[in-house]
Design goal:
Order of helices and strands: HHEEEHEEEEEEEEEEEHEEE
Helix content: 10-25%
Radius of gyration: 20 Å
Strand content: 35-45%
Protein name: DUF1285 domain-containing protein
Strand order of the largest sheet: 3-2-1-6-5-4
InterPro entries: DUF1285, DUF1285_beta_roll_sf, DUF1285_C, DUF1285_N
Oligomer: single chain
Shape: globular
Organism: Cobetia amphilecti
Distance between the termini: 58 Å
Structural class: mainly beta
C-alpha cells in the first residue's frame, strides 16, 4: 500500500471537517510495514523520496498514532501499517501567549489566572501548555536532551530549533539544591523546562 491509497480507503473520514478521525477507537488487523519514515527534521520520506505534497502529509498525520509498544502506525478502520519515526513525528514551529481571564473565588472576588502559552505544530495542532500538557526533556537520536510536548494519540512534538532558541531568549533559571540550573518559563501555573545545566557547567 502507498500513502495515497490510505487516503482513498478512508474517503471522507480523513478529509472532512476539522475534527480528527477517531483513530484511537479503530482496532483493525495489522497489515505489515510501509516504507515510510518521518525524519527528525520533519520530512516525510516514502521509499527514500520526500513526499512533496503538503496536503498528503497533513492528511496522513491525522491517521497516525503510537502503539503501547512504542511503534508508530497509520490506521484506518480496515487495516494498520507500521511506519518509522526517527525522533518525534511532529515539530512545534510557533508559539503565542494567551492571557487568561480572572476567575471568581468563593468570596465572589476575581482572582487572576496564570497565562498560558500555546504551541503550534507543523501539522497545525494547537497545544496549550497547561495541566498534563507540559514540556519534558527527552533524548534525541543525536544524544541531546531537548524538550518535547504531547500532542495526541500518544504522539509528541519536538521543539523546532528556531522556536527553541526563541523561547530560550526569555527563559528563567531556577537553581537546584545540587547547584545545577534548570531553564524554562511559566505556563498554566507550571514551570515548562527547556534545558538543564549540571553544576560543573554553571559559570561562577
Amino acid at each position: 500500500m502507498n500513502p495515497a491509497a490510505i487516503l482513498t480507503q478512508l474517503g471522507d473520514k480523513a478529509t472532512s471537517g476539522k475534527a480528527l478521525p477517531p483513530v484511537d477507537q479503530w482496532h483493525p488487523a495489522h497489515c505489515g510495514e510501509m516504507d515510510l519514515v518521518i525524519c527528525a527534521d520533519g520530512r516525510w520520506m516514502h521509499e527514500g523520496t520526500p513526499i512533496g505534497r503538503a496536503r498528503l502529509v497533513h492528511m496522513l498525520s491525522r491517521v497516525l498514532r503510537r502503539e503501547p509498544d512504542g511503534s508508530y502506525c497509520l490506521v484506518t478502520p480496515a487495516e494498520k501499517v507500521t511506519i518509522q519515526v526517527e525522533d518525534r513525528p511532529f515539530l512545534a514551529v510557533d508559539c503565542s501567549r494567551v492571557e487568561s481571564d480572572s476567575a471568581p473565588t468563593e468570596l465572589g472576588q476575581a482572582e487572576p489566572q496564570p497565562d498560558v502559552w500555546q504551541l503550534v505544530t507543523d501539522q497545525g495542532d494547537v497545544v496549550r501548555l497547561e495541566g498534563e500538557n507540559c514540556l519534558t526533556l527527552s533524548e534525541t537520536p543525536d544524544g541531546l536532551w531537548l524538550p518535547e510536548v504531547p500532542v495526541r494519540f500518544g504522539l509528541a512534538a519536538r521543539l523546532h530549533r528556531n522556536l527553541y532558541y526563541r523561547l530560550l531568549e526569555s527563559a528563567e533559571t531556577h537553581e537546584q539544591e545540587d547547584g545545577s540550573l534548570t531553564l524554562g518559563f511559566m505556563s498554566g501555573g507550571r514551570f515548562q523546562i527547556l534545558g538543564q545545566l549540571a553544576a560543573d557547567e554553571v559559570e561562577v
